[in-house]
Automatic annotation (TrEMBL):
Native source species: Thalassovita taeanensis
Protein name: Aminotransferase
Acyltransferase keyword on record: no
Protease as UniProt keyword: no
GO molecular function, one term: L-aspartate:2-oxoglutarate aminotransferase activity
Length: 400
């Protein structure tokens, strides 16, 4: 009999973290590696936010806090939801966790029973299905193909809902595709959810402020107020504020659900880092003027990567609406052979061969539930992206 939990056997390690770790190991061994796997901005946390963290240390704000967030941060979150999304919450409807990932996990742990289903559009962030499995639920996938711009249709959502459906887990702009749902597209989905009052909505709005061109972000409870009482709106400071390592995520929703999430957190991690919480107060309440120039930088990088990848025969790379990822299809490369004799039978083999033969680290599409694709994070320098895409072009040109 295995000493390890049977629940643990249901899940697998995060592929994105595995790719990043492998890239770091190869770099440490002296290989020339360009890692495009990590989903975090390459610029520093803004100075005023860093200063708030230092100030918290110097003022001795380094002790335990309330389990799910200091009052000042909850007030800032309430103000953010009202300012940015037109959503009215009270501090009792807010929870703060160690990153958005923990908030999502806590919500699933607090609500899922055996046979409960969670609908997840694919491609999806790699952790969604495994968090559902760890919580004892069953992930149900809806595939959104390239031809659909990686967005599900109302008809697909309607067909996926069963009497066992507990949550619809929604992410826009998306990791890994960068696809974003317009107000009308989201309203069509919420119209379906209105017909199924037993289904709750769990949003991942982490890329809210990373929106480009004419795309306008919106969130389900904003689009359809009738869903307010069965929606948990999750967000955080990691992406737009370049605070990935500070580990602060938050959510707002019905008080009984927030209380249940608080109970889970009280018996697991307890409060998030006190210093990070004070920095997050400054992030949400302070100047937001750095977001626009950061987005201009991301837009330029996005366009660079999309154009260079679309110049490769066999690769199709749509232009994302937001986030900082592209998710190109390599359907035209499957079945070809690399100069070293590797048959590209699927996207995982492609990503492995690309890393071994060129030193470019990407994440294979099957990790996100839709193949044959791969994900590139363009949250790195123009020079690194240009060199990486040049290597990909050269690699693909030599396929036979």
């Amino acid at each position: 009999m295995s000493f390890l939990s049977q629940t643990l056997a249901r899940v697998k390690p995060s592929p994105t973290i595995a790719v990043s770790n492998l890239a770091m190991e190869l770099k440490a061994a002296g290989r020339d590696v360009i890692s495009l796997g990590a989903g975090e901005p390459d610029f520093d946390t803004p100075e005023n936010i860093r200063a708030a963290g230092v100030r918290a240390i110097n003022e001795g704000k380094t002790r335990y806090t309330a389990v799910d967030g200091i009052p000042e941060l909850k007030a800032a979150i309430v103000a953010k939801f009202k300012r940015d999304n037109g959503l009215t919450y009270t501090p009792k409807q807010v929870t703060v966790g160690t990153g958005g990932k923990q908030v999502l996990y806590n919500a699933l742990m607090a609500t899922l029973n055996h046979d409960d289903e969670v609908i997840i559009p694919a491609p999806y962030w790699v952790s969604y299905p495994d968090m559902v499995l760890l919580a004892g639920g069953t992930p149900v996938f809806i595939e959104a193909e390239l031809e659909q711009n990686f967005k599900i249709t109302p008809e697909q959502l309607e067909q996926a809902i069963t009497r066992n459906t507990k949550w619809f887990l929604f992410n826009s702009p998306s990791n890994p595709t960068g696809a974003g749902y317009s107000w009308d597209e989201l309203k069509a989905l919420t119209d379906v959810l209105l017909r199924h009052p037993h289904v709750w909505v769990l949003t991942d709005d982490m890329y809210e402020h990373l929106a480009y061109d004419d795309f306008k972000f919106c969130t389900p409870a904003q689009v359809e107020p009738a869903l307010y009482d069965r929606t948990l709106t999750v967000n955080g400071v990691s992406k737009a504020y370049a605070m990935t390592g500070w580990r602060i995520g938050y959510a707002a929703g019905p008080e009984p659900l927030i209380a249940a999430i608080r109970k889970v957190q009280s018996q697991s991690t307890s409060n998030p880092c006190s210093i990070s919480q004070w920095a997050a107060v400054e992030a949400l309440n302070g100047p937001q003027d750095f977001i626009a120039p950061h987005n201009a930088m991301f837009t330029r990088r996005r366009d660079l990567v999309v154009s260079m990848l679309n110049a490769v025969p066999g690769i199709t790379c749509p232009t994302p609406d937001g986030a900082f990822y592209v998710y190109p299809s390599i359907a035209g490369l499957i079945g070809k052979t690399t100069p070293k004799g590797t048959l590209l039978s699927n996207d995982e083999v492609f990503a492995t061969a690309l890393l071994e033969e060129t030193g470019v680290a990407v994440v294979f599409g099957s990790a996100f539930g839709l193949s044959p694709n791969f994900r590139i994070s363009y949250a790195t320098s123009d020079a690194a992206l240009t060199e990486a895409c040049t290597r990909i072009q050269t690699f693909c040109a030599k396929l036979a």
